[in-house]
Model the fold of this input.
Amino acid sequence: MSTQAPYCVELHSASEFDALKQDPRNFAIVRYGHTTKVDPEHPGMIQIALPPLGEHLIEVWRSEQELHRSEFGPVRYQYCDQFLFGSLLLDDAADQDLAHASARAYQHIHDALEQAGFPSLLRMWNYFPRINLEVEGLERYRSFCVGRHQALEAWHFPNEQLPAATAIGTLGEGLLVYFVASKKPGIQIENARQVSAFYYPQQYGPKSPTFSRATLTEWSHLYISGTASIVGHETLHADDPLAQLDETLTNLRIVLDSAQQDHELHCNQVGDLGLMRMYIRDPVNTEALLGHIHERLGSTVRVQLLQGDICRSDLLIEIEAMHAPC
Ligand code: 3EB
Done:
């Protein structure tokens, strides 16, 4: 567990974007806006159609190593010996059925990773519009899960190596998937008070969501999945955003604690994680939620606040986090 981290991730103000983009060490920058796009000249320059609520903070991924750039089908990626960072953006209007689009996306990712020699997925981010819309009797999130599940099954991807993930509804078109992979699997972390998502019962969809609660990398980064007010497999506090936030913070703490049990992370509290994104369904709740976060985690904690739809219609917020310090 003592490998030196090949990159780190830091928050910056969006006003620094043009300057940060000039520095070749910054191999990926994730920012937010009204459309989802990936710079055609640069696969790490990603904009997600999630309007920032309050200060626009962007995520900057920096490596001192020289990265190579390549592509395979629609997947474009950068890599060095230790890791690969890739992205793809599919026009999902071409695929009315989101199960086909997500299966295609994950097949392309499989093909690219196989070709590049990085078989282990560590962290996936999935974004697409109208996530809670029912199409031909199935909610689009559930269709997404069907396609992802099928592709990972064909890939023979073991449940105990499933990556941490996010799946959020955007306000712009396109299915965006970006991800980190490595040559060796990370360590999977689950949450003792939640049923593993890959074992959710069928009431949440015909095929279970294939992700883990967190992954710990061999270079001691912790990637915590989108985390919500779910205990067992059920949503709690359906109409109460602040109570959902409390439940979510408890889940984050449990995941962090279980990551700490076997591994020294130099990160003792949720507020120390450094990188947090909170997705908020209804912007009207923003101020109350931010006040509550400051009360719980301290007033200096910085959170990327984004307007986005959460994958169950009764979930009002979701928080993901990373410990990947510079
Ligand atoms: C949950 O715990 C909330 O389908 O990739 C969180 C993170 C959630 C990732 C995914 C779903 C996903 O079930 C939803």
In short: The chain has five helices and 21 strands. Residues 28 and 44 are 4 Å apart (CA to CA).
